[in-house]
Amino acid sequence: MFTGIVQATCEVVSIQQAAGLKTFEVAMTPELTKGLVTGASVANNGVCLTVTKILNDKVFFDVMEETLTLTNLGQTQVGDNVNIERSLTFGTEIGGHILSGHIHTQAQIKSISNTAEHYNIEIAIAPKWMNYIFYKGFIGINGCSLTVGEVSDTGFMLHLIPETLKLTNLSQFSVGDNVNIEIDSQTQVIVDTVERILAKKQLTDR
């Protein structure tokens, strides 16, 4: 489990191709690797990955073919920075919202407005996912816990503060790039439950 509070952006220093997977080597800081062990879970751009090896603050992750297809890790190249968050430790402050690290889909950056007053990103997403996205609701974008801005039938806005831009890789993306999306699980459960109840009611009323 994760909070969506990104701890650092870290460079992917190598990617090795193997049968059915790629092995990512990510350079982390001593603070991030302190106490980290093989088998631990670490979110990379919001994707929950398992540590397979640690060598001199270089951390290795095996990324399966399905994950590469579903998430933007499939488009990640050597030299790119990924958002890193280690798994949630109970007893510490939770500043974001609970994320599982299981990406639902990718969405495309439709426009970026960067002025002295604001940094806004417009996200275009498949309409079926808009059932779970609400104004002022939570959403996970590349592992960042963010508040949804204005919504439309085909997407939504993000209004980013300087601190978010400094601590994450969101400022490094351009129009047309894909970001990883994790829908808020509580919202999804509520919407799906209500839809099932209404569907059953319609059947019984016939």
Short recap of the structure:
Strands 1-2-5-4-3-6 form a six-stranded antiparallel β-barrel. It starts with 7 loop residues before the first strand and ends with a helix.
Structure keywords:
single chain, alpha+beta, Elongation Factor Tu (Ef-tu), domain 3, 12 strands
Describe the structure.
The chain has 206 residues and is α+β, with helices and mostly antiparallel strands. It has two domains: 79 residues, Elongation Factor Tu (Ef-tu), domain 3, CATH 2.40.30; 88 residues, Elongation Factor Tu (Ef-tu), domain 3. It is 18% helix and 38% strand. The protein has four helices and twelve strands. The chain has a six-stranded antiparallel barrel with strand order 1-2-5-4-3-6. The protein has a six-stranded antiparallel beta sheet with strand order 10-9-12-7-8-11. A hairpin with a 2-residue loop joins strand 3 and strand 4. The protein is globular and about 65 Å long. The model has no long low-confidence stretch (mean pLDDT 94).
- The H/E string reads EEHEEEHEEEEEEHEH
Mean pLDDT: 94
Cα gyration radius (Å): 18 Å
> Based on DSSP secondary structure assignment, what is the total number of beta strands?
12
Oligomeric grouping of the chains: single chain
How many distinct helices?
4
- Structural category is alpha+beta
Strand order, biggest sheet? Answer: 1-2-5-4-3-6
Please write the CATH class name of the largest domain.
Mainly Beta
Q: Give me the CATH fold name of the largest domain.
A: Elongation Factor Tu (Ef-tu), domain 3
Major sheet summary line: 6 strands, antiparallel, barrel
Helix amount? 10-25%
C-alpha geometry: globular
